[in-house]
Specification:
By secondary structure, the chain is of the alpha+beta class. Helices cover 38% and strands 23% of the residues. The chain is built from 32 helices and 40 strands. The chain has a seven-stranded antiparallel sheet. Strands 28-27-33-32-31-30-29 form a seven-stranded mixed sheet. The longest helix has 46 residues. The N and C termini lie far apart (75 Å).
Length: 1119
């Protein structure tokens, strides 16, 4: 696609929807991407990108399918990896090496010695067991990972080279021929991750996730801005952007955070060809893509000649960028990149609304760096986790927009129903509301029986007839057309309309009658990332794709209307169907006496298509990863796929014709015969356990336990001719169940008590270790099927097995809940739902609690499920009301802060006027004290980041200040309270205080000292003779030869009994019911801690004391 916005031309037939589908765009754009790639590869010195602009506007039918296949093959099976790690592919069952990258022997310290040894054998070669290359703990971890369904949930796995002990992160994923192991070296200075990746990644991104979740809805721009800042802080890249895809597949940078010396890309648009469709497909499969150095020479992957095709690298973290993309990065000045995909729910038709929602690519989070950069896998996983949370938030915003659209649809349906009650079709243009109320337009025309009814800004009657003739001649096979530019749609006389008529939506209501909507020109400017036709680009002698210039280029769109939205085209299509139904007699008259007989060639083609589909179905059954077998009406085997043969050790040729009952364990013959009789009568049994005998190589492994569904096989006349069994191998799960049941005792009887609510538990590695009877009843999943499986990914999953959640967003929310509890945060609750094994949707409230051992270390999570009841729903409603009340309180607090700022501004103005007047030295000192009090008050009013103070990451100033001035401000602030309380304050300060000049935050020092002193005054009884002593003990220290610091010990001593014990506890431990005084002490204590100081409270027999210890660097000393 070119940088210019192309016409959105939609021809639709009676049976098709006007809604554009991503699949059609994929089929259209991929051949164009392939042709561009071939053009780049064949260019030796220069590739003119401007030619690709014209190419992207052309049709893709002239691109051979072989070219497209070769292009896709190279994208996914390019046999090249990046050199920052190494790759090994193995057979999943035997761990036999099938392929490895050329740098693997050297990186694993397996390379041959400089002097050859006659007895030395090649260490890394095809056919060896990859587990022998690593130490036993790593080999066992690889074996364990290969045995679970979702292997990626355990990434990364820590392994050590057997020869050198060098640590690596092993990142596993499955492909068609086995397992691919990406090995990335672990930095010796980093603490290696040993548990499940998801559990540790949350800790890295916890604060960023909390900030995202705290944002209010309705502001996508703010959400994107916060995300780019958080990702930049996490990863350290020079530039981080949020890149959003528009409906026509071109992209726009909607948020950016970059170094000041880099040219900003915010607001720039980029053509669709900059990110090919094949790359977008890979982003859906592999959510995080890192390129460490685009100039690095890629490493070749060598593989066993027995493999029929190159290894698929689509899911590999090491996959090398193709040359075209590497050149693109170099031209852009980006040497390293990290890209993460943002996916949301794809809008579904109403007929598919109950099915599992598919996801589509909403955009990308793109990180650029001007020098080579490597980000370790745990941090990449943390960023992926953060972007998943961002995707959930974006999906909420999109769903909110959909709700607004649904309101519009309801209004549209009201208009349609009103139109249906009139005389069709003239009533829709002669009465009110009329056809122009249906969608946004500038004019509408009804062309019926060669007459025209014109409304608003439209072509003349003669011009309308000319458009009808053009539609019947050029688009006679379709039932309608929509475009935002008649010129680009191909209408030859479009120029006569100028800007008055640019866009058009037309539908046929009979074979020769039409209904039109027209739109006028809409001025629009688009800022593109690079002047595509810049002549400077054409003079560049290097390979260039798509360009070497990325400077802003402003395109003014002319003679183009607003595009027709999907919801508008749906409304237009609905009206078309209504009118065609009411005018059915005319359509019938037009088609009278016409008999349609299919051509012979068409019948032959249908037979060929049926044969291809049948062959494909047979191939899928034979190669399916689940056991499938079939018997005829006599009970003899007539179907036996590869998976059954592999499990039982019985070859297909030996199995065919054998009575099925002879292959089943003896005690199951009776139930099997009963099931066969029912199936042959048309009653299909579900979830039947079948125990198959084993023989040959599998004989010593015991019987195969399979849970199967029986399906009737019928001939073309519908007669039942046999039974097909589609099963699932549960032998491993049954063995685990037997072992686990043997180890159960009283604990099992308690947990399975009918009075106990649904409970499940997870260990610190993410595996399910408990699934009680109530949970089995609610979910329909047997305990043996979930124990030792990954709770998030295998038990609770978005796939067809386990407890299927509604979408990825629900899984992400559940993962956040579990990980936050493991991280030690307070117990949380979440309302979520899942589909049980009976496909019934269960909605419940989950409460999660951290499990600890005797030493206080976290060992996992205990979860209770509470099925939503009316009382619980009311409780949730009360919680929402409480949260709203808290939000209202925050709003009121913000209002008060705003109101205080006005008089503060007046005070500041008066102080400025006084400073410019003639004052004595004492008066200026008083004015200086007043100014410091004002600055302190303004600082406190501006403290909106209380969380930052609690978490000790708020920034402190480091300015030069006079300690004497700061203490004078403190004295003045408590003077009035001291008089009101009739308590005298004795100040015991060294004489050199007035000359102490230090570096630090004077306003924060004033705040904490005045707060502690005021608190001591409040809790000192107003009795004669009682006093408070404020003392300072300074001590000068030298750090090295240049640095001098003052160690300051402030003591605020007041008579016993002192501050209540409850307030002292609140000073060090925050809780939700904290008092006002306790909150003040807590904030002050945190501020002292941020200044690298400490606070103590000492109780003695006659007095109690605050002891505040802080160190400040010395600016200069006049002592």
């Amino acid at each position: 696609m070119s940088s210019k916005s192309t016409t959105n031309l939609t021809n639709y037939s009676r049976s098709s929807s006007v809604r554009s589908k991503p699949a059609s765009r994929l089929l259209t754009q991929t051949p164009i991407d392939a042709k561009l790639h071939v053009g780049y590869e064949q260019s030796e010195q220069q590739f003119d990108y401007s030619t690709s602009v014209n190419l992207s506007n052309s049709v893709a039918s002239d691109v051979p399918s072989s070219t497209v296949s070769a292009y896709l093959r190279k994208m996914q099976r390019g046999s090249l990896v990046q050199p920052f790690g190494c790759l090994i592919a193995v057979d999943e069952q035997s761990f036999r090496v099938l392929a490895y990258s050329e740098n693997a022997p050297e990186m694993l310290d397996l390379a041959s010695q400089a002097v050859p040894n006659m007895e030395q054998q090649e260490v890394l070669s095809f056919g060896i067991d990859v587990r022998t290359l690593f130490r036993p703990s790593g080999a066992a971890a690889l074996q364990k990972a290969a045995n679970i369904g979702e292997v990626n949930v355990l990434n990364p796995i820590l392994v050590n080279s057997k020869s050198s002990g060098k640590p690596f992160y092993a990142i596993l994923h499955r492909i068609d021929v086995g397992l691919v192991i990406d090995l990335e070296p672990v930095n010796p200075l980093d603490l290696p991750v040993t548990a499940a990746g998801a559990l540790n990644s949350y800790k890295l991104a916890a604060k960023a996730i909390s900030r995202l979740q705290s944002l209010s809805s309705g502001n996508i721009s703010l959400l994107c801005d916060v995300l780019v800042r958080e990702v930049k802080d996490l990863t350290g890249y020079d530039r981080v952007m949020v890149y959003k895809f528009h409906e026509d597949e071109h992209g726009e940078v909607v948020a950016e955070c970059c170094k000041p010396d880099l040219e900003p890309y915010l607001g720039f648009h980029y053509p669709a060809t900059d990110i090919p469709q094949a790359s977008r497909f890979l982003f859906m499969k592999n959510k995080v893509r890192m390129i460490c150095d685009c100039f690095a020479r890629p490493v070749k992957v060598i593989q066993d000649k027995a493999l029929s095709q190159p290894l698929s690298l689509a899911g590999s973290t090491l996959r090398s960028p193709h040359g075209c993309h590497a050149q693109y990065m170099a031209n852009m000045g980006s040497i390293a990149s990290l890209v993460m995909s943002v996916t949301i729910h794809e809008e579904e038709d109403e007929a598919h609304s109950n099915q599992h929602k598919r996801r589509k690519l909403w955009g990308l989070v793109v990180c650029h760096h001007t020098t080579p950069r490597f980000v370790p896998f745990p941090l990449r996983y943390a960023c992926e986790f953060l972007v998943q949370v961002f995707s959930v938030q974006i999906n909420k915003e999109v769903e909110l927009s959909v709700q607004l659209t649904e309101r519009h649809i309801l209004r549209t349906q009201t208009v349609l129903c009103d139109m249906l009650l009139r005389d069709a079709p003239m009533g829709i243009v002669t009465q009110s509301p009329n056809v122009m109320d249906l969608v946004r337009c500038d004019g509408a025309v009804l062309y019926y029986r060669k007459k025209c009814w014109l409304l608003g800004v439209t072509p003349t009657e003669a011009q309308t007839r000319d458009i009808v003739s053009w539609l019947l001649e050029s688009h006679g096979g379709s039932t309608g057309l929509s475009t935002d530019s008649l010129t680009e749609a191909g209408y030859p006389n479009a120029s006569v309309f100028d800007d008055a008529v640019c866009g058009m939506a037309a539908v046929k209501i009979t074979s020769s009658d039409f209904l039109f909507w027209f739109r006028s020109h809409k001025a629009k400017e688009i800022k593109w990332g690079g002047a595509i036709h810049d002549p400077v680009d054409k003079k560049d002698v290097r390979k260039m794709h798509p360009r070497t210039s990325f400077k802003g280029y402003l395109e003014v769109v002319k003679r183009r209307s607003l595009p027709w939205e999907d919801v508008e085209m749906d409304a237009i299509h609905s009206l078309q169907l209504i009118l065609r139904g009411s005018l059915q007699h005319e359509i019938a008259d037009d088609s009278k006496m016409i008999v349609s007989v299919p051509a012979v060639d068409t019948s032959i083609q249908r037979v060929d298509e049926l044969r291809v589909v049948t062959n494909e179905m047979v191939r899928l059954i034979e190669t399916a990863s689940i056991p499938i077998l079939a018997v005829d009406a006599s009970g003899n085997i007539n179907g036996w796929n590869t998976k059954v043969a592999e499990l039982t050790g019985l070859d297909l040729r030996e199995a065919l014709g054998t009575p099925f009952v002879d292959l089943v364990i003896d005690d199951g013959e009776q139930s099997l015969n009963h099931m066969l009789r029912l199936a042959l009568r048309g009653k299909e049994e579900k979830n039947v356990e079948i125990r198959l005998k084993t023989c040959g190589s599998q004989e010593n492994n015991g019987p195969i336990i399979m849970i199967a569904n029986a399906c009737c096989s019928r001939d073309v006349k519908g007669n039942i001719v046999g039974v097909c069994f589609v099963g699932q191998d549960v032998t491993g799960q049954m063995m685990i169940l037997d072992k686990y049941n043997h180890a159960q005792g009283d604990y099992v009887s308690v947990v399975r008590n009918p009075l106990i609510p649904p409970i499940f538990m997870m260990d610190e590695h993410g595996r399910c270790i408990e699934w009680n009877a109530a949970m089995q009843k609610m979910s329909g999943l047997k305990r043996e099927h979930v124990i030792d499986q990954m709770l998030l990914g295998e038990v609770f999953t978005v796939h067809s097995f386990g407890c299927r959640l509604k979408d990825e967003d629900t899984l992400t929310k559940l993962r956040i809940l579990v990980n936050s509890v493991i991280a030690g945060q307070d117990a949380n609750e979440l309302v979520f739902g899942f589909f049980n094994q009976q496909h019934k949707y269960v909605e419940a409230l989950i409460s999660a609690t951290r499990r600890v051992d005797s030493e206080g270390r976290g060992t996992g999570v205990l979860c209770f499920l509470h099925v939503a009841s009316p009382e619980l729903q009311r409780a949730v409603q009360v919680k929402k009301v409480t949260e709203q009340a808290a939000a209202n309180t925050v709003t009121k607090l913000a209002y008060i802060r705003g109101e205080i700022r006005n008089p503060l501004s007046g005070i500041k103005c008066v102080r400025s006027l006084m400073e410019s007047s003639d004052l004595s030295k004492d008066q200026r000192q008083l004015l200086r004290t007043n100014g410091l009090c004002y600055d302190q008050l303004a600082k406190i009013i501006g403290d909106t980041d209380i969380e930052g103070i609690e978490e000790s990451y708020i920034e402190m100033k480091s300015d030069e200040f006079n300690l004497g001035e700061a203490l004078q401000v403190v004295m003045n602030q408590v003077m009035i309270l001291s008089r009101e309380r009739q308590v005298q304050i004795i100040y015991d300060l060294p004489s050199q205080v007035s000359s102490m000049c230090l570096f630090g935050d004077i306003l924060r020092l004033q705040q904490v000292l005045s707060d502690f002193l005021a608190t001591a005054l409040l809790f000192t009884p107003a009795l004669e003779g009682l006093r408070i002593l404020f003392s300072l003990i300074p001590r000068q220290e030298c750090i090295g030869t240049q640095m001098h610091v003052f160690h300051l010990e402030f003591r605020i001593s007041h008579p016993a009994p002192g501050i209540p014990e409850e307030l002292i506890r609140e000073m060090f431990n925050y809780n939700n019911n904290v008092s006002r005084e306790g909150l003040g002490l807590y904030i002050s204590q945190k501020l002292v801690k941020i200044m690298n100081g400490s606070v103590q409270y000492l109780r003695e027999a006659e007095k109690a004391s605050f002891i505040i210890i802080i160190e400040f660097p010395i600016a200069h000393n006049k002592l």
